[in-house]
Amino acid sequence: AQSVAQPEDQVNVAEGNPLTVKCTYSVSGNPYLFWYVQYPNRGLQFLLKYITGDNLVKGSYGFEAEFNKSQTSFHLKKPSALVSDSALYFCAFNTGFQKLVFGTGTRLLVSP
Amino acid sequence: DTEVTQTPKHLVMGMTNKKSLKCEQHMGHRAMYWYKQKAKKPPELMFVYSYEKLSINESVPSRFSPECPNSSLLNLHLHALQPEDSALYLCASRPGQPNTEAFFGQGTRLTVV
Predict the structure, then answer these.
(1) What SS3 state is found at A45?
(2) CA torsion, ordered B62, A40, A98, A23, to nearest 10 deg
(3) What's the alpha-carbon Rg for chain B, to the nearest Å?
(4) Do B101 and A99 touch (CB under 8 A)?
(5) Can you give the CATH number for the domain in which A9 is found?
(6) Which domain, by its residues, includes B41?
(7) Cβ-defined contact of A34 to B101 (cutoff 8 Å)
(8) Distance (Å, rounded) from C-alpha A20 to C-alpha A13?
(9) Among the ranges given (A41-45, A90-94, B74-78), the one the predictor scored with the smallest mean pLDDT
C-alpha cells in the first residue's frame, strides 16, 4: 500500500538552530508530496509541495524541503527555527484520485 | 478570497440530536473534502466530492451524511452520533488536479454527549 511515514513523534530544537522534520514515502510512479502545518485547534496550512523538477522546494515561512528519490525521502527543513514554529507538521501525498493522505505527524517544539 | 469557511466553530450535541456542519469556499475549487481528526492524530478522510458528485466514501457510518448543494457549499449532516464521534471535523477544497494543494477550513470542534 502507498504511504508516507514520519518516523519521529516529536522533534525538539533550540531557537536559532536548524531544524529537520523527516518524511519518507512509498508511492508508486511520480509522487505528489506535500507538507502541512497545524497550530493548536486550527485547520491545516499548506507549506510547500513537490511535483516535479527541482529537488529543493522552497515554501512559506522560510521552510524548504528536499526531495531525494534514491532515499525516497522528503524532509522538511528550516535554517533557523523560531519559537513560533512550534506546531504539528504533516507530510502528505496525493494518490492521483484526489485522495490526500497524511502521515502520522511530527510535533515540533522550539525552545527559547 | 482564499478561505474555506466552516460553521459552526464549536458544536455540542446529544446522541439523539440532528445537526449539520457547513463548509463554504469561493475559490472555484471543484473538489471538496470532509476529514475527521482526533487529538494528536492525522486527519482521516471521510468523503470527497468532485464536481459536486460524491466520488469517495471511506466506509463512513450512515449516521454521517454528506451533501453538496452546489460547487461552493458542502454540508455534513449528523444524526444519532456516538461519543466516540467527538472530534475536529475539517473541510478542505482544491482545484481538482492531483498536483494542487488543498485549502483547509479551521474546523468544527464537535462534542457528542
Answers:
(1) strand
(2) -130
(3) 13
(4) no
(5) 2.60.40.10
(6) 4-112
(7) yes
(8) 9
(9) A41-45
Domain harbouring B41, CATH code: 2.60.40.10
Q: How many residues does chain B have?
A: 113
**Selection from A37, A23, A2, A5 nearest residue A104 by Cα:** A5
Instruction: Identify the domain containing residue A13 by its residue range.
Output: 3-111
Q: How many CB pairs under 8 A join A and B?
A: 65
Helix, coil or strand: residue A85: helix
For residue A98, what pLDDT is reported? 78
**A97: pLDDT strictly greater than 90:** no
Quickly tell me which residue has 505527524 as its cell. Answer: A105
Percentage, residues of chain A above pLDDT 90: 79
SS3 for A84?
A: helix
Q: Least CB-CB distance to B109: which of A41, A98, A100?
A: A41
Helix (H, G, I), strand (E, B) or coil at A96: coil
- What is d(CA B77, CA B80) in angstroms, rounded to the nearest whole number? 10
Specify the DSSP element, H or E, that contains B87.
strand B87-94
Q: What tens digit of pLDDT does each residue of B35-71 get? A: 999 998 999 999 999 999 999 999 999 999 999 999 9
Q: Would the CB atoms of A43 and B109 count as touching at under 8 Å?
A: no
